[in-house]
Fold this sequence. Notes:
Layout: H1 2-14, E1 21-22, H2 26-43, H3 45-48, H4 51-76, H5 85-101, H6 106-128, H7 134-152, E2 163-164, H8 173-200, H9 202-212, H10 214-219, H11 224-250, E3 252-253, H12 255-258, H13 262-274, H14 280-296, H15 301-317, H16 321-330, E4 340-341
Antiparallel strand pairs: 1-4, 2-3
Helix pairs in contact: 4-8, 4-11, 4-13, 4-14, 5-6, 5-7, 5-11, 6-11, 8-9, 8-11, 9-11, 13-14, 13-16
Amino acid sequence: MTDLTATLSARTLARPRAPDVIVGSRASRQAAWFGIVLVLLAATLPWWGESSWMREFVEIACYLIFAMMWNLLAGYGGMVSIGQQAFFGFGGYVMLMLGNYAGINPFIAIPLGAVAAGLIAVPVSWVAFRLQGGYFAIGTWVIAEVFRLSFANLSIVGGGSGTTLTALRGIERSTRQNLTYWMALACVVAAVLLVYLFLRSKRGLALLAIRDNPVAAESQGIPVRRMRLAVYVVAAFGAGMAGALYFVGNLRISPDAAFSVNWTAFAIFMVVIGGVGRIEGPLVGALIFWALNKLFSDYGTWYLIGLGLLAIVVTLFFKDGLWGYAQRRWGWSLFPTQRHLKP
């Protein structure tokens, strides 16, 4: 009995030990604590800040959420879409109809609009996934135009001229602004955590494998089509949430505003400037976009030309975006998703 125990112990010691895998780092943990403090501080803004600050935050939060969803779809999933405004506008219209005609509080209707956008993405994917590469990108734009024309012909929501969100009339203006701001802050935190936790999971690794080589990924047993559908639905859900939130703050919606291709164009700009395929990319890009919009938006057409030139310069000299350059040179990573073996 003693010999048997000794033999088993020897075999156990001889068995190779599984290597320890590290995902985070000390810097990322410090950044996480700093982010928590920053969010808690931001939550107090309605008590000491100005209403204009809250309105600006709500607007840039919508752009940020939309850009993060586009980055998830294209930067991580490899599905370059220029028609995600279809779900942005759909979420906004669902929120308005639930608020104006179903008597649902618009702040409760925001997540419901996001869910509706995610659900409508399932039948839309049956059409979009038949296309590949550039045809997929153009096809998503055509789908967004179909959405725009469809809502432009619905008289119940004001047709082409749009309509106003009347469900918030009974709420005091300051209360409405505070609730909109807190909802925007919660949506930003939820979007960042959703994307980060997804990419840290096994499904996130599968998504990266599909982006790099879908044929090889499928040969390894990864359900490529099901994974792409899941990412497409999640991206549509986030876009719908951004749209519903934006029009709660704007109080008015129209087909041209809700389904404008500018939403996707600005999202691409933010992701390219910050860094495609990085969670930090849309965050950095959104801050730069907000600063440029604040300083130069009065210049009209020249402002848009400047944005295009800046995107070209970054693409030529910083191929991984500004954050990608910083990460490669100094090793910065606020949201690490790569796994490393512990030395």
